[in-house]
Design brief:
heterodimer, A: mainly beta, seven-stranded mixed β-sheet, four-stranded antiparallel β-sheet, 11 strands, 57% strand, B: mainly beta, 0% helix
Amino acid sequence: DADVTQTPRNRITKTGKRIMLECSQTKGHDRMYWYRQDPGLGLRLIYYSFDVKDINKGEISDGYSVSRQAQAKFSLSLESAIPNQTALYFCATKQGRSGEQYFGPGTRLTVT
Amino acid sequence: AQSVTQLGSHVSVSEGALVLLRCNYSSSVPPYLFWYVQYPNQGLQLLLKYTTGATLVKGINGFEAEFKKSETSFHLTKPSAHMSDAAEYFCAVSAPNYGGSQGNLIFGKGTKLSVKP
């Protein structure tokens, strides 16, 4: 079984809809991250969480919100989706400051 | 603050040829450096990392990278390309021992490697 899972894997939604992307991990890591990937732009950090009560904005948090429901679960929400939020979204986990990050398989989101 | 520049958004090599993917970083403090690979329709997988110590780092699938502080570089190499190496490669930097960055990764924009038969 995968250590970091993301659901759904693919989603098509309409402008203005609320959507939630979910991430779960079985690695027991304390830190979790949400990134978006756009062609030619690499990965950009949306939000990160060091534990359940410590959530921080990343480089591009506008239009997004997150919830850390438990150490193992970190959800990303788009309150009112817009077409330029069409992207590939990745969740990642890490243990402590100096550990390496482990990535989920990604969610491909299309907003029409 | 840290930043990463990957030279060349696309690199094409012939099967059996040397693979060289370039990465230069900027960091005001000693960095940790990483190379990740992304195969089509998959997430990112760690290829190798430099933290401290030996500057030549060996990773999976025959890849290696050398940390050159004087050149602020961490180029990725493989002596002989294989068709299965076709993927997108990302260089990343962090500074986990320094408070401001919190150990977060800063990624380059990626280099797509094509391997011709």
